[in-house]
Fold:
Amino acid sequence: MTGQPEEPSRGRQGYYARQAEIEAEKHGLTVEEHGVNKGPNYIGIKPYTSAGGILFLAILITLISVTMFVYGFLSLAGLVYVSEPVTVAELILPAVILVLLPIAAWRQCLKERKAIRLRKASGKTLQPLTRRSRID
Structure:
């Protein structure tokens, strides 16, 4: 016993936040400048982690969610033919998921847009330096 309070073991809590910090440090960026997690072997811009790719996915998820939400309520109202009648209880969990998915997608999209704005303001980039770019 050294007299210093021991930090409690957090286990896996905060694991992904720590991974994002590690990735940001590798590129010399803050977590906010790094944006969404690009993965451990980030080389170049991958379409699904670029701002345009995340925007496309957010729009796609929103359109699918809205379509399914409308279909669910039309089937609940009896305006669309379904093999078995749908009850409100059967619709609660899918409705919650269909509301939360687009919110999460747009949150990631806005997070990446903010990161791009911060990187541009500070003149930083996620692109690793190549041999050619190091030569003056």
Summary: Confidence is low (pLDDT under 50) at residues 4-9. Helices lie at 15-26, 31-34, 51-77, 88-122, 131-134.
